[in-house]
Amino acid sequence: MTSLVSQLVEKGLIRNDQLIGLAGPSTEITSLPYRRLMEAAGIAPGRFADLVAELHGLPRSDLDTMLAGEPLLGPFSRVFLTESGIYPYRLRSGAQRLAVVDPTQRDVVDAVAMTLGGAVTIEIAGLDEIEIALERAGEAQEATVAGEDEPGPVTGAENVDELRDLASGAPVVRAVEEIFDRAVSLRATDIHIEPTRRDYQVRVRVDGVMRAIVAPRVPHRAIVSRIKILASLNIAEHRLPQDGRTRAKIRGRDYDIRVAVMPTTTGEAVILRLLDRSGKLVDFSQLGLRTRDETALRRQIEMPYGLVVVTGPTGSGKTTTLAASLSILNDQTRKILTVEDPVEYEIPGVSQSQVRTAVGLTFASALRAFLRQDPDVIMVGEVRDTETAKIAIQASLTGHMVMTTLHTNTAAAAITRLIDMGVEPFLIASSLRAVVGQRLVRLLCPDCRRPRRLEAHDFDINPRFTAIGLEPGTMVHEPVGCERCGGTGYRGRRAIFEVLEVNEPIRRLILGGADDQAIETTARAAGMTTMIEDGRARCLDGTTSVDEVFRVAALR
């Protein structure tokens, strides 16, 4: 087939020197996107569409027919359709049409066609015609879209069942549904769809550990394209990272799904985080805190003002601890405001806000606005920058109880982290009441765990027994593996904690610029239990294993 480039050159519509400027060192001139050719040649969109239709032997659509038909925008965002130069619609006869500017972008065209399901006729339209049709189709939806507060494409794509109906059983939709369903059945928190040299693999994170599941027999590109459509991402962009969100109903439960796409040397990797919106709020007494730690934390969060910080890596249960702590304060006598990213637990009686960076609603801007809302308690999902840290400290010093999270390895390290972020030590000493460090450990499967009494030679083989403070003759339990736990030996998770109360000796250390080791030593002298020590107690009662404690917590 003669290329479009050749036709344009033969007709004198574009010069060779223009083509050389368009093509990069690794780009074939004949594979240039049609839109770039049209813009470089300065050809009117209608005439360009005529040339493309003639070259590919495809029907030429017209604007009147497109406007008379029923738009099939469904789960596709207008931004995606505009950037891709695509307009899906249905004629009065029921026939489905896909008007496109560039029929050579097969990934995009095929993915949209598969999503529509059934027979779809591809036709060529001018870019201006597609933009007008999309503008008309979107006018009726604009007011609704502008007023939406929920993330992701909620129109026509709120759950997998609706998507199945929309796609009429297309294989790619069923494949994505299978991945979601399998992940939820395994209690997974994350899904990783990773390309390989030959194919791709699907792994899920269950109880904090990755495990592989069977990948559907559907091309990787189709899976990625489908997920991009659900998350309102640019399906034609393969070079840059993209982040988005969607929602789905999986096994009768509502999920928020955060989507992150990253280009790799073998293709695009997609990571999805599953957030169960149907999850029940954990009661404070069910967090698993030791009696001393529970009493100490409760005492501090019930103070009228101050700062309480929960620290740990991503996925360590910090939000659960904060939400459970708020439940103690959630009565008719207090005004409670939260800003989160995302809102993981819906708490009745609490005013919760979702971060919207695209419109300028950040943690810092929300926190400033909260101070004008007459709050008693403020929860900030995460302190990510100096501005947020300083506003949170000021709020805690002006009569508000402020709760937030940080990413540090230990409770004591949260103090030095705040100082590193530019907060004055005297402000920290005056406002900080407590820091909670935590990790999630896997629970031994109660159906297959095996008791074992430690012998002297065990300590020679595994020095961790000594490091954690165990002695010969101690009874511990080990993982075995059975059908109920999927052969892992573990089922479920719980947190191990350390609760650092800021007393006068620690305040003096903060003011004196002491490091986190000195702060931790003083806190332990006052009775603080470290995460390793809490983990040892969980090993002794058969809740978890020694290896599991050391997997998530470091000896200090």
Describe the structure.
With 556 residues, the chain is an alpha/beta fold. The chain contains 23 helices and 19 strands. It has a seven-stranded mixed beta sheet with strand order 13-12-14-15-11-16-19, sandwiched between helices. A hairpin with a 2-residue loop joins strand 8 (242-250) and strand 9. The longest helix is centred in the first third of the chain and has 20 residues, at 127-146. The radius of gyration is 29 Å and the shape is elongated. Residues 140-169 have low confidence and may be disordered. This is Flp pilus assembly complex ATPase component TadA. Residues 371-385 form the Bacterial type II secretion system protein E domain. Belongs to the GSP E family. It comes from Prosthecodimorpha staleyi. One of its GO terms (molecular function) is ATP hydrolysis activity.
Identify the overall geometry.
elongated
What's the helical proportion of residues? Answer: 25-40%
Structural class: alpha/beta
Number of strands: 19
Radius of gyration: 29 Å
Mean pLDDT: 86
Report the sheet-strand fraction: 15-25%
Straight-line distance between termini: 69 Å
Quickly count the helices: 23
